[in-house]
Amino acid sequence: MGDQVFRLHGPTSFCGEVLSRVGLDVLVFDGERFYADNLSLERLPDIKSEVIFLWTDVTGLKSSEVEQKLSEIEDNPLWRKLPAVRAGRAFRVGEHWYGGDLEAYSLILDDVERYLT
């Protein structure tokens, strides 16, 4: 998420597929199904989701740097205006959301159950 750019994972990404299979709608931009796309802070208002799962790629970062990056996002006025954030439905999750194996699948399901039930 360097330079305040988000990587938005769409319905054809691993985590998007998992969410779709449990009956959740995954964000589609401009009517397009996509794997992933970069999203700048200026495009945050385009996110109309009822729920947001937020994680960061921690490769090469210390935990304090990860915390700082996530806090910068969460402190941004554009982030705080998102419907999901205002409703208390934006959740930090682990990097397993970027995984692609059965363990990651299971951990994503655990997160969905923890936060949405």
- Placed side by side, the strands forming the largest sheet appear as 1-2
- Looking at the overall shape, the CATH architecture is 3-Layer(aba) Sandwich
User: Regions with pLDDT < 50 over 5+ consecutive residues?
Assistant: none
| CATH homology superfamily name | Nitrogenase molybdenum iron protein domain
Beta fraction of the residues?
A: 5-15%
CATH top level label: Alpha Beta
First and last CA, distance: 29 Å
| Topology, number of strands | 4
Oligomer: single chain
Characteristic terms for this protein:
Rossmann fold, alpha+beta, 117 residues, globular, two-stranded antiparallel sheet, single chain, 5 helices, two-stranded parallel ribbon, 38% helix
What is the compact description of this entry?
The chain is an alpha+beta fold and 117 residues long.
Explain the overall architecture:
By secondary structure, this protein is of the alpha+beta class. The protein has one domain (2-116): 3-Layer(aba) Sandwich (Rossmann fold), CATH 3.40.50.1980. It has helices at 14-21, 63-75, 77-80, 83-86, 102-116, and strands spanning 5-9, 36-40, 52-54, 90-92. It is globular, with a radius of gyration of 14 Å.
Set out the fold topology.
Blueprint (H helix, E strand, L loop, with lengths): L4 E5 L4 H8 L14 E5 L11 E3 L8 H13 L1 H4 L2 H4 L3 E3 L9 H15 L1
Parallel strand pairs: 3-4
Antiparallel strand pairs: 1-2
Helix pairs in contact: 1-5
